[in-house]
Amino acid sequence: MIEIQRHIEILLLDNDCVIVPGFGGFMAHHVDARYDENDGSFLPPLRSIGFNPQLTMNDSLLVQSYIEAYDLSYPEALKRIEDEVNEIRQTLENKGVYEMTDVGVLRLNDEGNIVFQPCEAGILTPSLYGLSNFNMRPLAYEAEHAAQTKAVVEEVKEEQEKKPEAQPTLNEVLLQNEEEDKKQHLVIPMTWVRNAVAVAAVILAFFLIPTQISRPTREALRMSSIDTGLLEKVMPKLPKAAPTVQLKAQPAESAHAAVKADDKASATRYSLVLASRVTRANAEDFVKKLKASGIDDVRVFQKNGKATKVLYGSYASREEAQKQLNLLQGRQVFEQAWVTAVNE
Question: What is the crossing angle of helices 4-11 and 74-95, to 10°?
Fold first, then answer.
């Protein structure tokens, strides 16, 4: 297993040159911060790496690193370095390229010479750790495209306002017509009609039968009494009352948890990130420039000490935010934007 690339990366933290005996030297040099006019971005300073195949003299720096790491003697460490160098050369001859992780890429050109391409991010440097690039266009450029951005925003708003209302489906129309028919037509069961006619006949017969003027006997009283059982058989029976259901009160803790979960879900919104990892002063200045150019729905967002961001819009779902981003992607301001979840 080739470990030489790891030793080179570690040694370059404190040294500007590491020589691999019999192979070449890797040199680190400082690159100042710069502004890229094509992308409109500020690039942070970094340390880049160069390779010189003529530096083959052993300075014992790499050998000493092997001795301390693997508890080897000086000849054993030197022999291990030679074996790894031979393996690298064999890989270059077979494939024409060898990648050194976090250092760079070695290639063989048409003339058989080794060409080195350093890592674009530069070598790891503690004093420069955490610095990243950020985009900021000149004011003249923003003023030039402000009218176009405003026109696009107004066009999007007009399209949203012109969206047709959702038409009811066929099933919804049929159900609605059926409910209206039920309200207009009152159906009376024929059983109720027959029972009502029978009751009326019994009452009419009671008043038409003559009673004796003399003192009635027990038999006469019994014969003249009304049989209420007949009325019970004739009249329709009332439906039984539905049994009452006792609802158990939801525990206070469960209700509180449900309300808390609903509040948490409703608090999640989605916005478009226009800038991130900038100072709050720069973020507020950027927001002022965007609002001056006609983009009003922007704001500075920072929560729990996290990185300051410049956000655009507020949407209920990620799909809605992504759709809005697709509409605005052609504008310069929204070229590097992305969708993020915001819990405010």
Answer: 110
